[in-house]
Amino acid sequence: MIDCNGRCYEPRVVSIGPYHRGHTHLQMMEEHKWHYLDALLTRTHQTKSLTLEDYMKTVKSVEDEARECYSERIHMKSDEFNEMMVLDGCFILELFRKVSQLVPFQQDDPIVAMAWVLPFFYRDFLRIENQIPFFVLESLFRLTRGDDEKETNASLPSLAFAFFNNTMHRTHQDLARFKDLKSKHLLDLVRSSLLPESELHARSVTNPGKKKVPSNIIHSISKLRRAGIKIRELKDAESFIVVRFRHGAIEMPSITVDDFMSSFLQNSVAYEQCHVACSKHFTTYATLLDCLMNTYKDVEYLCDQNIIENYFGTEAEM
Q: H/E element holding 249?
């Protein structure tokens, strides 16, 4: 996959977790992580008398389980590993809180001055090689949760969705359904929220990994049109990956394809291929798009039919 998609799975500006930790081009954000952790420590020490030792103990209690989440052995000493989890986890939580206006951005916050960096965070937080276990985030969230968050009943998933909604633009009614959604990490959280609701209910009682991606050949939209098959926009669908075929027509929701969506789709497909007990919805959807779009004229037609909003590049680049 790396050979095919280059650096799609690697972070561009911020390292989360062990795989890209210490890389030279990601060092600028390490300083900002410490600033955010320091601010969180100051606030929680005033309100809850917490210290860095409390944070470390919280992560230490799940260290063995966290290490098991990675596909290869992490060669880091215990204190180093736990410090990384605290630093990366608290940076994510503080950024979520600031974007949701639960905690104000400071006037001298460099991230405010670097507004260009937020779109990179949206993509980097959802890269398969740039994850920490969701239960680590939840443990730190419960430890540092303020009274105002308890009063508003803000959950960690709801804060995460509010953060990513700055680029995904989903309705609040849609996102409210997932305030208690369970997941393995942030990529899994966002991906799972876009599965059909019937699949979400089935996850706990079936093994979705047994479902295979259809191997049937699907022709390009140009060939399908010549065969009399139409394509039209499916409105009010629960997710953009819900595709129907009825009365001689393919019905697909509109999807906005930009740098974020391209990265998210590729990483979701990679996650499905790496995780055996995982449904293959995004793999199937990406395969369908790849089959339908054989030439730039196919892309042009899908854009004309409001199936695709192209903010990625030219029709040929799509």
A: strand 249-252
